[in-house]
What does this fold into?
Amino acid sequence: MKLIFLGPPGAGKGTQAVEISKKLSIAHISTGDMLRRAIQLGTPTGLEAKGYIDAGKLVPDETVIAMVKERILEDDCKNGFLLDGFPRSVAQADALSSFTQIDCVVDIDVADEKLLARLTGRRVCKECQGTFHISSLVSEACPVCGGTLYQRDDDKPETIKNRLNVYHAQTAQLIEYYQTRGLLKEVDGDKAPGDVTQAVLAALGCK
Ligand code: AP5
It folds into this structure.
């Protein structure tokens, strides 16, 4: 199965992608994670991406399209994949359809007012990359592996505002894009994470 998760920053795409990709035994491809890894490694892609990510803007289409085109050829994608954070523009969606066929697009819908609190409270584990919210943490260590938790640089209120603006200006139009093509399923993301997972599975017809 080849899936796309759409949704604004903080909707829970990453949180749900971890669960759903495990359940369906498909690869989880997060372009945000790939770009952050490239920045950490200091690759040419990382050096190019850093300024855009820090400003809350989209990394240029050509760079991200080339990255995804190459990634989906890897062995772990043979059974399918879940794209988390790609496509994010009509140009990316058009490019994607030129090199693969998507089975279903899930839009995780959460109102903007809820997203700021989710993102400013997000903490990520340096070791296992797990994502948590400060409201569920009982200590400063990762509840899964004991690793160090950090706050993403782009989770500052000013950058979050830019990311939301970019989402509404450039990415939200993909909801209609995929609706027109008969691929879209809508899921209410403003529920407990486990309930959202059940709703996604139900939408995909594999509960
Ligand atoms: P990316 O890393 O993809 O960020 P994003 O799309 O802004 O999404 P987030 O990771 O912020 O949120 P999420 O929806 O995954 O939510 P999460 O599950 O973590 O991209 C970062 C940057 O990279 C972009 O700004 C851009 O510069 C660049 N980039 C990436 N892809 C690109 C592309 N295709 N083209 C161009 N540039 C690209 O959850 C958030 C918080 O909420 C957590 O604390 C979590 O614990 C909590 N939470 C999750 N679910 C729930 C729930 N149901 N109820 C309550 N809290 C919840």
